[in-house]
Design goal:
Elements: H1 2-13, H2 24-44, E1 48-49, H3 51-54, E2 56-60, H4 69-80, E3 84-88, E4 94-99, H5 103-116, E5 125-129, H6 131-159, H7 162-186, E6 189-190, H8 192-219, H9 231-267, H10 274-303, H11 307-338
Parallel strand pairs: 1-6
Antiparallel strand pairs: 2-4, 2-5, 3-4
Helix pairs in contact: 1-9, 2-7, 2-10, 4-5, 6-7, 6-8, 7-8, 7-10, 8-9, 8-10, 9-10
Membrane topology: Multi-pass membrane protein
Family: Belongs to the SecD/SecF family. SecF subfamily.
Biased composition (Basic residues): 355-366
Length: 366
C-alpha cells in the first residue's frame, strides 16, 4: 500500500505520468467498439424485461420446499405455456414468475402448479401484476433520467464550461449504453431494482469526472500566459494527478457490489440481488473508465480547437523545437571536447615579434 501511495504522490507531483490524452484515439476506438457491441446486443437479444414491466403473475410457495428450481420451472412452463422464471428465496420457498397472463389464466395455472408441487392451492400465494404499473415505472425512470441529464449539463456548464458539460454528457451516455448492453448480452432480468441501480451509477460516474475537471480548471488558469505546456499536456497531468484517487474510490465502491453480485447472487443463490448489483458493478467500472479515457481527452480535443489554444500550441512547440536545437548543438560541442578535439575550429595565428631574440647571445642574428 505504501508503494501505491508513493506512486500516487509521484503522479500528483508530475514526476511520472502516462500519456492518456496523447493516445486518446486508441481509447476512442476501444470505446466505440464496446459501444457497438452493446448496441448489437440490445438489437439482437433485447432486454429481458421483468414481470413488473410486462404484467403477469407471481406465485410463492411455502417455506422449505423440497422441489428443485429446475423442476419447478418445468412445471410452470408446462402449466402456463410461457417461459417462467423461478428463484429460490432465502427461507427456502420458491418464487415463480410468469409474464403475459391474465386473471383467468392465473387461477388455472395456480391449480395445476399446486397439484404438481403437492401443495394445497390455498397455500400457494398468487399476485397479479398489471403491465400498466410497469409502464408507469419505465416512463418515470425515463423522465427522471432526462431531467438528471439536463441538470447535469446546466450545472457543469455553469461551474466549469460548456465543453466539459458536453464531455460529461457523452461519458454518461457511454456508461448507460454499455450497462444496458451487458444486461442484454447476459440476459439478466430488468426489474425496478435495475432502474434504481442504473440511476445510481450516474452519480458515481460523474464523481470521478468532476474531480478531474476541477483539477483541470485549477491548473489551466492563465494558461495562455506561459509557453511551457499545451492544454492537452495539462489535461494529461490532471488525469495522472487524480488517477490513484479515482482507482481507490472505484475499488472501494466495487468491493461490496461484487460481494452482492458474485457471492449473494452467485454462490448463495439470491437471484433477486442480481438485478441491482449487476447494474451497479458494470456502471461503476464503466464510469471510472469513461472519466479517464473519454471525458477528459474529449475536453482536450474540444479546447484545442479554440484559436487561443491553437496559438498557444504553436508557441509551445516552437519553444520546444528551439530548445531541442540548442540542446543538440550543445551535445555536438560537448562531443568534440570529449574526443580531444579543439572547441574552436580553424587556424589560430599568433603574431611573431620582429625584434624577438635581439640583445641575447643565443638570439644574435648573423
Amino acid at each position: 500500500m505504501s508503494k501505491l501511495g508513493n506512486l500516487g504522490a509521484r503522479l500528483h507531483r508530475g514526476e511520472i505520468s502516462y500519456d492518456f490524452v496523447g493516445k486518446r484515439k486508441i481509447w476512442y476506438g476501444v470505446s466505440i467498439l464496446i459501444t457497438i457491441t452493446a448496441i448489437l446486443g440490445l438489437a439482437v437479444r433485447g432486454l429481458n424485461m421483468g414481470i413488473e414491466f410486462q404484467g403477469g403473475a407471481v406465485f410463492t410457495t411455502p417455506t422449505k420446499m423440497s422441489t428443485s428450481v429446475a423442476k419447478a420451472e418445468e412445471y410452470a412452463n408446462d402449466a402456463s405455456g410461457h417461459q417462467a422464471v423461478v428463484q429460490k428465496l432465502g427461507n427456502g420457498s420458491l418464487r415463480i414468475q410468469i409474464a403475459g397472463i391474465d386473471t383467468g389464466q392465473s387461477d388455472r395455472i395456480k391449480q395445476e402448479l399446486a397439484k404438481d408441487l403437492n401443495l394445497d392451492p390455498e397455500k400457494l400465494a398468487a399476485d397479479l401484476v398489471g403491465p400498466s404499473w410497469g409502464e408507469q415505472i419505465a416512463n418515470k425512470a425515463w423522465e427522471g433520467l432526462a431531467i438528471f441529464m439536463v441538470l447535469v449539463v446546466i450545472y457543469l456548464a455553469i461551474a466549469f464550461e460548456w465543453r466539459m458539460a458536453i464531455a460529461a454528457l457523452v461519458a454518461l451516455i457511454h456508461d448507460i449504453t454499455i450497462t444496458t448492453g451487458i444486461y442484454a448480452l447476459v440476459g439478466f432480468e430488468v426489474t425496478p431494482g435495475t432502474v434504481i441501480g442504473l440511476l445510481t451509477i450516474l452519480g458515481y460516474s460523474l464523481y470521478d469526472t468532476v474531480v478531474v475537471f476541477d483539477s483541470l480548471k485549477e491548473q489551466t488558469k492563465d494558461i495562455t500566459k506561459q509557453t511551457r505546456w499545451t492544454y492537452s499536456d495539462i489535461a494529461n497531468r490532471s488525469i495522472n494527478g487524480t488517477l490513484v484517487r479515482s482507482i481507490n474510490t472505484t475499488v472501494v465502491a466495487l468491493l461490496p457490489v461484487a460481494g452482492l453480485l458474485f457471492i449473494g447472487g452467485g454462490f448463495l443463490g439470491a437471484g433477486t440481488l442480481n438485478d441491482i448489483s449487476l447494474s451497479l458493478f458494470v456502471g461503476l467500472a464503466a464510469g471510472a473508465y469513461s472519466s479517464i479515457f473519454i471525458a477528459t481527452p474529449l475536453v482536450a480535443d474540444l479546447k484545442e480547437r479554440e484559436p487561443a489554444m491553437k496559438a498557444l500550441t504553436k508557441r509551445v512547440l516552437a519553444k520546444r523545437a528551439q530548445a531541442g536545437a540548442e540542446e543538440n548543438a550543445t551535445e555536438v560541442r560537448g562531443t568534440g571536447d570529449d574526443a580531444g578535439e579543439p572547441a574552436v575550429v580553424g587556424p589560430r595565428n599568433q603574431p611573431v615579434a620582429r625584434g624577438r631574440g635581439r640583445g641575447r647571445a643565443s638570439g644574435k642574428r648573423r
